[in-house]
Fold this protein.
Amino acid sequence: MLMRTDPFRELDRLSQQLLGANGTRTRPAVMPMDAYRSGEEYVVHFDLPGVSPESIDLGVERNVLTVQAERKPEYGEDTDLHVAERPRGVFSRQLFLGETLDTENIAASYEAGVLTLRIPVAEQAKPRKIAVTGGSEPKKIST
């Protein structure tokens, strides 16, 4: 199961949206995502348009998955910029992964500006059948 609880990230996002990084109102740098279970895996999609695949960095430490990417400006320093509404810079997002996920076998792909992660459910968390035998009296347990 994926858990999405990070109150400090939400506070940072709100303060950046209201004040901006340098005290002026700017648009927040966000990494929107969708997450769902499909069969024996969780699938997570992150919108990262305009990001180079080489700038995407994924890491797992304990049960925390960190996604970091950078969108660089497409213009030089000598450019006379008139409008700058597209967020640039480093984007980062963390997901807290439940103990029932196999963090050793996460697969990642990037296509058309969407980063897709496939996180398998761990074997010990998958449903299983338990055989029931009959015809004999239950054994007594001595204490």
